[in-house]
Amino acid sequence: DIFESKLQGFVFERILLEEPEKCRLTLLGSFPASFLAHSNQESTDLLSAIIRIEKTAVPLEIAQHIFPSQLGGFLSRVKRMESTDIYTWLAGWISATSMEKQPQGDVKVNIICPATDVHIRKYSKQSSILVRETPDIYKRIVEPYISAFPPERTRWVTEILEGRKEQSKILFSSSDFIVLPDMKWDLHTIGSLYLIAIVRDEKLRSLRDLRADKALGHVTLLKSIRREASIIAEEKWGIVRGGLRMYIHYQPSYYHFHVHIINANYEAGMGMSVGQAHLLEDVISLLELDEANPGTPGIFEKMTLTYGLGEQHGLYVAMKAAEAEG
Ligand code: M7G
Prior knowledge:
Layout: H1 2-8, E1 11-19, E2 24-32, E3 46-54, E4 77-84, E5 87-93, E6 107-112, H2 117-122, E7 128-133, H3 135-147, H4 155-161, E8 172-173, E9 177-181, E10 194-199, H5 218-237, E11 244-249, E12 258-263, E13 277-279, H6 280-291, H7 299-302, E14 305-310, H8 316-325
Antiparallel strand pairs: 1-2, 2-3, 4-5, 5-6, 7-14, 8-9, 9-10, 10-12, 11-12, 11-13
Helix pairs in contact: 5-6
The protein binds 7N-methyl-8-hydroguanosine-5'-diphosphate.
7N-methyl-8-hydroguanosine-5'-diphosphate (M7G) binds near residues 84, 184 and 253.
């Protein structure tokens, strides 16, 4: 193709836009005037040019043939990044030559095996509704739902906290919590930085369990997560104050309290939408308001929490019925 030689003439100037969530990069640079078919080849004029590179969708055929040993396989190489409990994640390369140049891989492959019914339902296409969870509904429907999960559901957390998995990745550890890369992160692209802080206290299951009571130390814990995450992000990746978005999911997928820590410029999809993500800053502030009224029920005991639920979610049927009654 004639464009192969035309592209050789591109002189890079600067990056205009990085959009890791869209697998897209927009560059500014220039081409010699010969880029235009009608131009005089001798001209030394430079033409300003914008180039947007976007990864194409994963082809559906790979559903059957992922690896090279399989006819027309999609991936030429894979390297395991981690495996914890039933979760394994790999970096994959589409062409063998790009391994050094593209250490994060051309694609990331996540495997859940053996997958439970809860996993299959979570990853299935579904529509959502918003439901309101009053303190009473929490007690009647949600708390029993959370308590019914077998301990295996969060075995990946125990594996990490007890020092058996992902130890080389840990960025901070104290007697209260640890910070490490979330398995969603490719470990290289700062624009999509995604860390997770996991608290050690397994009694703390969700936002609903947070209290202002000084003796419990939740506010101190949350502030300390905020502080340590900022220090790590600045020291390791030069992310300045305000460059992180930290939030707590309600409902989360896993009821062992954790905080999502992501690059403030990264669009992490539905996981950061209104109706699931609660800013750590706001949560701290709400608890601090409670501190002024010791002995009274806490904000997360009193508050109605509204969130989106997919129709495959374990709470969907009961919450939809409660919504219809209320
Ligand atoms: P969540 O709010 O419970 O649910 O977050 P979500 O998955 O619907 O967001 C759990 C977070 O833990 C997610 O961001 C996951 O990507 C991350 N995560 C899950 N597992 C099984 C692992 C793991 O084994 N290791 C690490 N490092 N992160 C994990």
